[in-house]
């Protein structure tokens, strides 16, 4: 893109309120994500303290070497909590089916009844679910981060050394702790609230918020993730949603300007 055209596009985005807000939101969320990553990386005691609150130490078996920590996370054995976690695990998938149905129905309208903004928002939400929780989190970060889960680390009854958030030097080989896929899926549910009509938001909004917050809490209490994993995982989905929204808004402005 020529420099003059590039400058014209930037000016056009700045003048367009929706595009400007979308870009600012995306930059803010990305900045917050990076700042939180830095905070958790340089203050690893935050992760250790939170996981320690749910860890129950027990006496080691006779003959266990000195310095070995024995115990587990008792909530992961609680039948009710396990059931609730499994139920919440499928909520993003069920919500995605609802969004797909809504998108198909919206695409069936033509002419005066066709709502391009609604179609765009549905598409962005589905793209967010695919790019964020699936590609970025599960296929990339969790596969290559190397960070052991709390129950895998030697300070909580495991065998691998603790690694701070953002370190890729851990001994986990696959499906690692950084960052939480379930928390990312839960964070995606928050992105659906703007898609609800004004009448439906008071009905379904609180439920989406509750599921979105309880799911990451279960992962920490079960020893499946550190606090940083769920916080950064949760925030990753709104950040991806905002980034995609900014891309769509910039494309709209570019189409109307150049």
Automatic annotation (TrEMBL):
Gene3D superfamilies: Phosphatidic acid phosphatase type 2/haloperoxidase. InterPro entries: PAP2/HPO (IPR000326), PAP2/HPO_sf (IPR036938). It comes from the Bacteria. Keywords: Membrane, Transmembrane, Transmembrane helix. The keyword DNA-binding does not apply. The chain crosses the membrane at residues 21-43, 87-107, 119-141, 178-196, 203-222, 234-251. Residues 122-245 form the Phosphatidic acid phosphatase type 2/haloperoxidase domain. The keyword Isomerase does not apply. Pfam families: PAP2. This is Phosphatase PAP2 family protein.
């Amino acid at each position: 893109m020529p420099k003059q055209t590039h400058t014209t596009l930037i000016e056009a985005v700045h003048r367009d309120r929706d595009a400007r807000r979308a870009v600012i939101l995306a930059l803010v969320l990305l900045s917050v994500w990076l700042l939180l990553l830095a905070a958790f990386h340089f203050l690893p005691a935050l992760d250790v303290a939170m996981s320690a609150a749910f860890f129950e130490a027990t006496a080691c078996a006779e003959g266990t070497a000195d310095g070995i920590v024995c115990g587990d996370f008792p909530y992961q054995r609680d039948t009710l909590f396990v059931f609730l976690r499994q139920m919440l695990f499928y909520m993003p998938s069920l919500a995605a089916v609802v969004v797909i149905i809504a998108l198909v129905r919206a695409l069936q309208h033509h002419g005066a009844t066709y709502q391009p903004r609604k179609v765009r928002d549905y598409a962005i939400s589905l793209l967010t679910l695919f790019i964020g929780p699936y590609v970025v989190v599960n296929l990339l970060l969790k596969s290559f981060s190397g960070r052991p889960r709390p129950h895998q680390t030697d300070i909580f009854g495991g065998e691998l050394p603790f690694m701070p958030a953002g370190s890729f030097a851990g001994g986990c080989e696959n499906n690692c702790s950084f960052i939480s896929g379930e928390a990312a899926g839960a964070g995606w549910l928050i992105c659906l609230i703007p898609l609800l009509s004004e009448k439906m938001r008071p009905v379904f909004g609180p439920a989406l918020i509750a599921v979105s917050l309880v799911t990451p809490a279960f992962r920490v209490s079960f020893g499946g993730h550190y606090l940083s994993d769920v916080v950064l995982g949760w925030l990753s989905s709104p950040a991806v949603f905002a980034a995609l929204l900014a891309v769509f808004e910039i494309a709209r402005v570019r189409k109307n300007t150049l």
